[in-house]
Amino acid sequence: METIKKITLALVLSSGSLTINAQQAPMFTHYMNNTLAVNPGYAGSRDALTVTALHRSQWVDFKGAPLTQTLTMHSPLRNKHIGLGLSVLNDKIGPTNNTSVTADFAYIIQVNEKSRLALGLSAGANIWQASLNSLELDQQNDPVFQNNISNHVTPNFGFGAYYSRERFYAGLSAPNLLQNSYSEVKLENGNTLVGKEQRHFFLIAGTLFKITDNLAFKPTTLIKVTPAAPVQADLTASFIIMKKLLVGAMFRTGDAVGALIGFDITEQFHVGYSYDWSYGLKTFKYNQGSHEIILRYDFEFIDKKQIHSPRNF
């Protein structure tokens, strides 16, 4: 039980309220299908009004484990050079809860007949809450955990670049540029412990290799860089069968391995599920892995005759 308490406190610290050196952005096994959550340049890239919903239950059966939901929607305008999007994220870790609402804007440049480059901007707000005094502590008078944080609202903005072709994409982004402070605690030794957001940089890429008419290979990656934290990379290898069924495996450096499956119920409606298991953290002894489900629907194609380079992504 003592070990579990220590790990629970580590979860709170890693959420970013009370430490500077932590990765704070939620992780997604379906990052390749949830691109707007990390790169505003993706807005409008599917040539449709696209709505994507995702739920992630991390470290099942572990008390206080992360629960994350995202809802994104985006579409190009009729002139096809402007993409607009809206992203909502809710991330709960133990006694902490972060909700963000972000508007996304992308200017889409037609580089040539088959490739496009989009430059994106995002702006929004985070609402952060933490019931810190509800925790069971080894040191009851720890000043770090004495005061709750209620509805702490902070603004933020970001940028992203997204390049796409029919069977390839790559992007670079920093969705939250501001490093807002959430709390300042005076310690007995005279030092001040400042809780603040950390800036994250994301590199994404993927391609599609046609093996036969009914089989394709789709490798993708997401690389996350955060100051004072190890670089983390997701590597995913998927096969697409009969242009409808996706099966794949993933590896997250220093963290997890897993599998994912997806199915296009119709040309417009996609559903996916993934399971990953943490191998690099002490928490693997106390949880049953992480589950993720994603739903995506393309409501209206702007031009069905056009080559949709990101259609595979």
Question: Distance between the terminal alpha carbons, to the nearest Å?
Answer: 44 Å
Question: The biggest beta sheet, please?
Answer: 14 strands, antiparallel, barrel
Secondary-structure element order, as H and E?
Answer: HEEEEEEEEEEEEEEEEE
What is the number of beta strands?
17
- Alpha carbon gyration radius: 20 Å
CATH architecture type: Beta Barrel
Low-confidence stretches: 1-23, 306-310
What fraction of the residues are assigned to beta strands by DSSP? over 45%
CATH fold description: Porin
What structural class do the secondary elements suggest? mainly beta
Question: Globular, elongated, flat, extended or rod-shaped: what is the shape?
Answer: globular
Provide the residue-averaged pLDDT: 82
Biggest sheet strand order reads 1-2-3-4-5-6-7-10-12-13-14-15-16-17
The percent of residues in helical segments reads under 10%
**Total helical segments:** 1
What count of structural domains?
Answer: 1
**CATH domain class name:** Mainly Beta
Supply database-style keywords.
313 residues, mainly beta, Porin, two-stranded antiparallel ribbon, 1 helix, 4% helix, disordered N terminus
What this model shows, in words?
The structure is a single chain. With 313 residues, the protein is mostly beta strands. It has one domain: Porin, CATH 2.40.160. Helices cover 4% and strands 55% of the residues. It has 1 helix and 17 strands. The chain has a 14-stranded antiparallel barrel with strand order 1-2-3-4-5-6-7-10-12-13-14-15-16-17. A two-stranded antiparallel sheet has the order 8-9. A hairpin with a 2-residue loop joins strand 6 and strand 7. It starts with a helix and ends in a 12-residue tail after the last strand.
